[in-house]
Amino acid sequence: MSDSGIGARVPRKEDHRFITGQGNYTDDINLPKQTYAYFVRSPHAHAKLGRINTKAAEAAPGVVAVFTGKDVEADGIGGLICGWMIHSKDGSPMNAGPHPILASGKVRYVGDHVAVVIAESYAEAKAAAELVEVSYKVLPAVVDTATAATAKASVHDDIPNNTVFNWAIGDEDATAKAFSSASHVTTLDLVNNRLIPNAMEPRAAIGDYDGGSDSFTLYTTSQNPHVARLVLSAFIGIAPEHKLRVIAPDVGGGFGSKIFIYAEETVCVWAAKKVGRPIKWTAGRDEAFLADAHGRDHVSKAELAIDANGKIQALRVKTTANLGAYLSTFASSVPTYLYATLLSGQYNIPNIYAEVDTVYTNTAPVDAYRGAGRPEATYVVERLVETAARELGMDPAEFRSKNFVTEYPHQTPVIMCYDSGDYQDSLDKACALIKYDQFEKRRASSMRKGKMRGIGFSTYIEACGIAPSAAVGSLGAGVGLWESAEVRVNPTGNVEVLTGSHSHGQGHETTFAQLVADRLGIPIDQVEIVHGDTDKVQFGMGTYGSRSGAVGMTAISKALDKVEAKAKKVASHVMEAAEGDIEFKDGSFTVKGTDKAMAFGEVALAAYVAHSFPTDQIEPGLKEGAFHDPANFTFPAGCHICEVEVDPETGVTEIVDWVAVDDFGNIINPNIVEGQVHGGIAQGVGQALTENAVYDSGTGQLLSGSYMDYCMPRASDFPEFRLGFTVTECPTNPLGIKGCGEAGAIAAPAAVMNAVTNAIGVKEMDMPASPLNVWRALNASI
Amino acid sequence: MPEVSMVVNGQNVSGSCEGRTLLVEFLRENLGLTGTHVGCDTSQCGACVVHVNGKAVKACTELAAACDGSKVTTIEGVANGSLHPMQEAFRQHHGLQCGFCTPGMIMAAIDMVNTHGKKLSEDTIRHELEGNICRCTGYHNIVKAIKAGAKKM
Fold first, then answer.
1. Nearest CA to CA, how far is A236 from chain B (Å)?
2. Can you give the residue range of the structural domain that contains A424?
3. Do A583 and A636 belong to one domain?
4. What is the mean pLDDT of residues A651-659?
5. Which of B41, B91, B133 is the closest to A11 by Cβ?
6. Number of domains, chain A
7. How high is the ipTM of this complex?
8. Is the domain of A516 the same as that of A543?
């Protein structure tokens, strides 16, 4: 292994600009003659929209224009779309209500976009927005997930029971039969609490229109600029794709929330032509809380059937998922194919049946957030398994071992076919790392300090690199989920790689360059990764679902294969040898059995000079592209174990130890992979201990709408994480990569809640296990 | 509009701004120093931390006019020819991912060393980071970076 190739702990190439303040985020960009947008948002969760009087705002200092939904309609601009069609059990298509970019007829959540004020400065736009008079007829708000379907009010007037769809997967009868013959049934009522993603960079956009070329440019905080362009063009009708450039420069975290095509960004690019000047919008954190797509929000009843030998026979779950007021871009896929298909966990479960009802409420749209469905599935499975072990008086590690999948491929009853893994290995290594056999000693020691200690396991599995395209298409996806890459070798031998993946913290500029440097035998500083601009990269699906390693890098690898093949042809002519005798290793082309050799750079130059080969047979130049459509999902898995100490006096839970042993297949850069695990754990712990999006059940007002009300985890909430890895290579991509971006967030909530319930000896407790909730559980009789 | 003069990263600067203009707005918009970020509106996240007269300050909580006559250092001004040891430590220890909170983290970390000395315990670092939120790293490598950077300052 070289010091910069695959497997090396290379410090990141992109870091220099970030640590010196030279990052280039959307809000750092300013265009000549730029104006500023501020959105008038609904203060009501649910109301009929009456007259909107914009006169006073239009006359306010600095105001350039004010637009409402009527202007959007007059221009024939379409609404936002949901790109994944789900059908209900009865075969009917999901009920997708209209999702206008500026409200029309009704407002449906606090923060819904009613009008936009465009002014010479941000302050003037914001001040003038106060002068927009909107008359509302307030309607009763539908807020609660569990009761939305039976609420009297309708979020969308023509959609009955506030229901998006009633979906199911699995064999209901066979599952019922297994339950009826079970020797033990464990039942849990579980709430997967609603979260607000909170990437540290708020969303931002600059819309620009160039009259000379009749084309638009949108700078935006996107995880997938090409998908944004496609939707803005084909569905919303801003401009044809070739007349619309979407640039996602440095993006300050996404976690799913920047996948989606939102109203504000769309309004900026649409209105730029109307005002004839660039329009910039940057969300305040208050707006991020109100109008970024939220995550999770499931209410479930889950059951596990176990036979007399301690073998799991069936799992059944009924889930209600809150999708908010409108269907966000991929909202429908999250509580269905990204959730229920993972309900087999790491276990051999012969029978699974899941029913998922999804509902509209007068709350912000809910969509994918780090893990997207898989944390929810893991929470169901791992809380059930841990609870079952306790009820059976079995050791939770032993109960898991007894039920692990051990042979591959393993077909679950819910679509997924696991391709590789070794779940016992990661469990064993994690138990050794935390010294599981000495836990009772540690518990006794905590007890002497007046603390209640608990331990919790989470042996999770996830499915990443969602694919292949035809398969996801058959499940309702509106797009294919492949990735593209182009490798451009310059005449002087350095390389530009254009990728459809997008880096917003993942370090692609380093890991992707490591792959290229390793394959071509050139220094890593000779490789530049280009991404995030639809004018530079031909097309790409973007970064989410831990797909960029397994899918994006495989596309690069395929393009590198082609580069190597072409370079060999060129080298064979220059060195006057048969093509089959050319070997390529460590950056050098050699002729088998001779001392003839050419460096990679020399061959690159020869390819461009084109003096030494017949150009009617071999084209000049050295540039190759590839599209990669994976054959299957990848299946990262692992074991996280959490130990907590609960102070019974205050209800405060402290995480005192955390071990994680993950199997991500092959690892390109351990620093970056460990960083992904750390961050994922922190987000999962945030869900379990501190974070909670709360709407007032009567008015639908967001009560947790700032960092003073929504508790983001801080450095002092964590111990040092202790990580280990096992490796089973993914068989469906040449790099053997599985993906690592979401594992921590998927594993962590169940580990924490298993530990907390173990510490205080209760069966059920909802997240977050805040001091108040824990204290209440400990003092239930008071 | 008040005229404001200050020394920013060793350079004398002046400009006119509204009375309500925040220091962070003055830095980003008047001076083009976009390394200082705005991540919230309630002074919690710390992405905007700069040094005013040698002390860490959240630039979203300070009026530009109130900094008239002050010496301000931003992330753009901490490297002196070569990277500041704290910048280098963040790079070496992978103490950043998306990079958005990083300028504030580094400015807070330098202030932490100035206040508590070069031998920082993990507890001290974690406690002192109360006012800086990172969503990417789980703080693990930030804590390591600050500990290592402190020793080299």
1. 30
2. 382-464+632-778
3. no
4. 98
5. B91
6. 3
7. 0.98
8. yes
Residue A147 lies in a domain: no
Tens of pLDDT, residue by residue over A447-465, are: 999 999 999 999 999 999 8
Instruction: Answer yes or no: do A20 and B35 touch at CB < 8 A.
Output: yes
A398-453, pLDDT tens digit by residue? Answer: 999 999 999 999 999 999 999 999 999 999 999 999 999 999 999 999 999 999 99
The answer to whether the CB atoms of A674 and B94 lie below 8 A apart is yes
Q: Does A251 touch chain B (CB under 8 A)?
A: yes
Sequence-distant (6+) residues with CB within 8 A of A176 are A316, A353
Residues B11-31: tens digit of each pLDDT: 999 999 999 999 999 999 999
Query: Which of B25, B45, B58 shows the shortest CA–CA distance to A200?
Result: B45
Instruction: Quickly list H helices, A88-129.
Output: 122-129
Q: What percent of chain A has pLDDT over 70?
A: 99
| Residue A371 contacts residue A739 (beta carbons within 8 Å) | no
Sheet with strand A527-530: strands edge to edge? A527-530, A495-499, A483-489, A623-628
A206, A94: one domain: yes
Closest Cβ opposite residue A22 in set B35, B83, B91: B35
- At residue A287, the pLDDT reads 98
Q: What are the structural domains, with CATH classification, of chain B?
A: 3-77 (3.10.20.30), 85-152 (1.10.150.120)
Mean pLDDT for chain A overall: 97
Q: Is the pLDDT of residue A636 over 70?
A: yes
Query: Considering only residues 611 to 640 of chain A, which have any Cβ-Cβ distance to chain B shorter than 8 Å?
Result: none
Check pLDDT > 90 for residue A176.
yes
pLDDT at A1 over 70: no
The C-alpha of B74 sits at a distance from chain A's nearest C-alpha, in angstroms, of 8
Distance CA A3, CA A7 (A): 9
Give a yes or no: residue A762 inside a domain: yes
Q: Which of A558, A530, A536 is nearest to A628 (CA)?
A: A558
DSSP H or E run through A116: strand A113-119
Measure A390 CA to nearest chain B CA, in Å. Answer: 31
- Is A19 in contact with B102 (Cβ distance < 8 A)? yes
Q: What is the mean pLDDT of residues A347-354?
A: 98
> Which one of A628, A661, A677 terminates a domain?
A628
> Of the candidates A480, A604, A487, A482, which has an alpha carbon nearest to the alpha carbon of residue A537?
A487
Provide the token pair at B47. 């992405």
Residue A680 reports pLDDT greater than 90: yes
pLDDT at A545: 87
What CATH number does the domain containing A63 carry? Answer: 3.90.1170.50
CA distance A686 to chain B (A): 10
Contact between chains at A507 and B132 (C-beta distance less than 8 A): no
Residues 23-42 in A contacting B (C-alpha not used; CB under 8 Å): 23, 25, 27-28
> Which of B40, B49, B120, B143 is the mutation pick for testing A, counting most A CBs within 10 A?
B40
Q: Are residues A114 and A133 in the same domain?
A: yes
Task: Examine residue A758 and state whether it is found in any structural domain, yes or no.
Answer: yes
